[in-house]
Structure formats: structure tokens, C-alpha cells
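Extended Data, panel c. Modelled sequence:
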Amino acid sequence: MTPAGMQTFMAGNAMLREKTHDNYPAPKHILSCVFEGMQTDIDTGLAIETRYFVNLVRSPVAKNMIRSLFFFMQEANKLARRPKDVPAQKYTKIGMLGAGMMGAGIAHAAATAGLEVVLLDSTKENAEKGKTYSAKLLEKRVAKSQLSQDGAAAVLARIKPTADYRDLAGCELVVEAVFEDRALKADVTKKTEAVIGKDALFASNTSTLPITGLAEASARPANFIGLHFFSPADKMPLVEIIMGKQTSQQTLARSMDFVRAIGKTPIVVNDARGFYTSRVFGTYLSEGMALLQEGVAPALIDNAGRLAGMPVGPLALADEVSIELVHKIARQTKADLGDKYVPRAADQVAALMVEKLNRLGKKSGHGFYEYPADAKKHLWPGLAEHFPVKAEQPSLEQVVERLMLIQSLETVRCLEEGVLTSPQDADVGAILGWGYPPFRGGPIGQIHTMGVANFVAACDRLAEQCGERFRPTEGLRKKAEEGAQFFAV
């Protein structure tokens, strides 16, 4: 091989590692096949390629990704858990309450799918801003020749901005995406139900407030359901459907029809604080903040998150979500649960950052990171003063283990408590909802790969080292004793 060829492979290998962190073997195997095959005859080269392919197909990564991204995703998109005896619902017109980024994104997705959308906000001006969000997205597609000008105009024509609730008449479904305030949500629910048909559905896009409680404001709680979209709603493929205690099976089926109609993937969960996605996603952020309080270097924490396969490290992600929001949710949860609330290290970290240091996250320009206008973000040097770094640091593998196993354990709790309706939905929801690494298969797929007994042993060890949050459930212990698994393959 020529020196130039060697340089190409050296650079390619470095670029590959930067992108995959060696979590995905296929690209590395492909590069190895080419490198080794160029140095031998065709028959030997084909034999080398076959060996790499067989090694790849038999790997846990391949099994995890085929199981979750192919079989489970197909089940979800085919509405495998849709009630069978309910006629399919065809949608032509929906209402959207709230024209902020979330509401505008949902309206865009529905209009792009061919539905008429009544986009309602407190003022006509605010509603028009929501329509402008769609206009900008469509302009980008036209500029890239992905859509004609006439096609873009047709989508925009299907969005009707308004501040008049009477315009919601004739909507088969209304989605509410106003601020996370119970009184405000109750008010818009009553105003909407006064004008929509008796068979129309009302859905809340809340990410934390229990649906059963919100449905108390409804005169028809059987038609009330949660549809939790993810931001940006025009791009993110997942919708978490939340069943309230009085939500009917007909409402569930019709809601799943809507999610499929706008090209999204649904998972179904039962009502609970934080539902599934927000609850388990929160453990990743919380564990990152717990590590920070323990004196683990911030760079090690966030690098471990990325090397584990997560899109962003937990501290950086807390900044993106808003440390202030994390703090508010913790305070509200404590107020609601009273003596039953279990304090967390993350609560103390968030309280210090928000109340004393006024570092609210990316939105304020100051969080765990600094966000200078003329340079890349970087960790705030002041963290060392408030969270001194210990001389002895854990290994990268130890930090990764904590960040990933806590998510799997909380997912098991959701299954055992009946919040999740299936382990398949758990894995699909994690991968599509918060970017859980597909090579691990999902939070339940990770347990399946490790083996339940090995997972239980690891959690017991972490419980002794880090606290009871890592203690395995009795259901997991029973599975380990019986040699049972969550999946057949």
C-alpha cells in the first residue's frame, strides 16, 4: 500500500472513532475489510469480508438494533397496541391551542400531513407568529428543492391563526400546548369543549402534569387524553400517549390514528407523575448532578455521557432543558408528595445553581456551561469553587455504568408499576424520545444484553456504593432467580 493510502486509512480511522466512539462496529469492520482486502487476492479478500460480516451479525449491537429499530419500531408504527374493535378515525380538521414553539411545531406537522389546523392563541398576533414558524420551515425546504412553492403555499393555507374559540367548531381533535399551569389548562379546556362536538377528542401536550388531574376540568373525561410531543415537534418522531383513569379505549384508538396520520410513532403509557419519558430521562440528568456534587470532574461526567452513546452529556443537557425547570419540577414534586418525597442530590445542586448563583441554564447564557457570543460554550470555571473536584476520580467505565444503569432500573420500575404497557414501547420510546443509544437496544435492551442476573448484581453493588436509588426491584430479583429474560432474542 502506498504512503498516501496509509495516510487515508489513518485519518479515516480517527474520524470514525470521533463519530462512533467505537460503539458501532459496522463502520470499523467495513474500513478493516477494505484495508485488509487491498493487500491480498480477491478470494482471500472475500473470506476476510465474510468473517467480519458474521462477527457483526452475531454481535449484541446488531441484535439490539435489529430488535428495537426494526421489529419493535414496526410494531409501534403499525399500531400493534391499538384497541382492535374501534373503527379507524379519519381526520380532516384539528385545533391547536398555543402557538409557541411546541404548538407551532405540532400545527406544522399536521398541516404538512394534509390536515386543516386552527391555530389558536391569546391574541391573533401571537397565533400569526406560530404560522410564521411554519412559513420559515417551508422556505428552507423550497430553497433546498425539497418542496415546490405551490406545495409550500398549500401547507400554509391549511393553517388558520385565530384568537376566537368559535373557530374550533368542527375539529375532530384539539391539542392543548399552553403553559404548564393547571388553572390555565383548565380554562382552555372548558372554553374549547363549549364549542367542539360531543365526539371530539381533547388532548393535553403536558410533559409532567398527571392527565387524570387535568381531566377534572373536562365535562367529558372519557374523551380526554395526553399526547406528549417532543421538541421540536415538527422533527421529533415520537408521541407518548398517556391514558387518564377515565380515558376510554375508543379515545386511545382514535388518538393513535391521529399520531399515525401525521407520520409520528406512538407509544402508550398510563398516567403517573412524569409519565415514562420525562421520568426516566430525568434520572440521567439527576445522576450527572449527583456525580458533580460528589466531586467528580465535570468534564469526566459529560464526556462519559457522550462516550456512553447519549447525544449530550448530562450537565450540558441540564443546561439545554433549563436548570431552572429541573428545580421547579423538584419543588412541585416535593410539594405534591409531602413526606413521601425522597430528597436527591440533584435537588440540592439545582437549588444552589438557581437560587444562589442565578445560573439558570443555556437560556440565560449561564449554567454549568458558559455561552459566550463569540466563542464555543465551555464549562464554567466557577464550578470548582462550589463543587470541589476530589483528588481520586472514578474511571470512565464507572461513570458510564452509573449514568446508564439508573435509566434501565427506573424503566423497570415504570413497567412494574404499570406506567409502561410493554417493554417494547420502553425501548422505542427511549431511542426516539431522548436519544438513548440504539446500539444498547434501549433501557430494557441493555438489561437483556447484560443478562438480568448480571444487571441485578451490578445494581446491588452500586446501591451499596451510591445509595438506595440503585437497589433492584423484587421483580428483577425474581427474574434473575428464574433465569428469565425480557425478550426471546
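The two ends are 42 Å apart (CA to CA). This feature is highlighted in the accompanying rendering.
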